């Protein structure tokens, strides 16, 4: 049993990029699927696939690397809100990651979205993680 499944997801992605793996496999959940879709839409991962088995399902993520330098598209991926200390932000106080170059993933009442989209929708919520 994992205490913080989102932190486990982020750690698996971080470790796979540092080890230079092409694909990482992660146990699935609804919020992990939403985070994966956001990472794909923002260009941090190459592709993803949801495999549904009888129990939980898996997410297979193809990681993205630069062809010339072989560096990962994800420089840093870190958890913001932890189970012991939740971080919530209103629509006016949403964090900006690297002055807008990175993204913050926010769980709002309208679903999981990036900080930029949450500002447009004028909603706040729990700051899940930062990616750049």
From TrEMBL:
Enumerate the Pfam families for this protein: Ribosomal_S8
Q: Which InterPro entries does its entry note?
A: Ribosomal_uS8 (IPR000630), Ribosomal_uS8_CS (IPR047863), Ribosomal_uS8_sf (IPR035987)
Q: Name one GO cellular component term.
A: ribonucleoprotein complex
* BP-aspect Gene Ontology terms: translation
**Subunit notes for this chain?**
Part of the 30S ribosomal subunit. Contacts proteins S5 and S12.
The scientific name of the source species is Apibacter muscae
Lineage top rank: taxon: Bacteria
Keywords, sorted A to Z? Ribonucleoprotein, Ribosomal protein, RNA-binding, rRNA-binding
**Name by which UniProt lists this protein:** Small ribosomal subunit protein uS8
Family note = Belongs to the universal ribosomal protein uS8 family.
Query: What role does this protein play?
Result: One of the primary rRNA binding proteins, it binds directly to 16S rRNA central domain where it helps coordinate assembly of the platform of the 30S subunit.
Q: Which GO terms of the molecular function aspect are on file? A: rRNA binding; structural constituent of ribosome
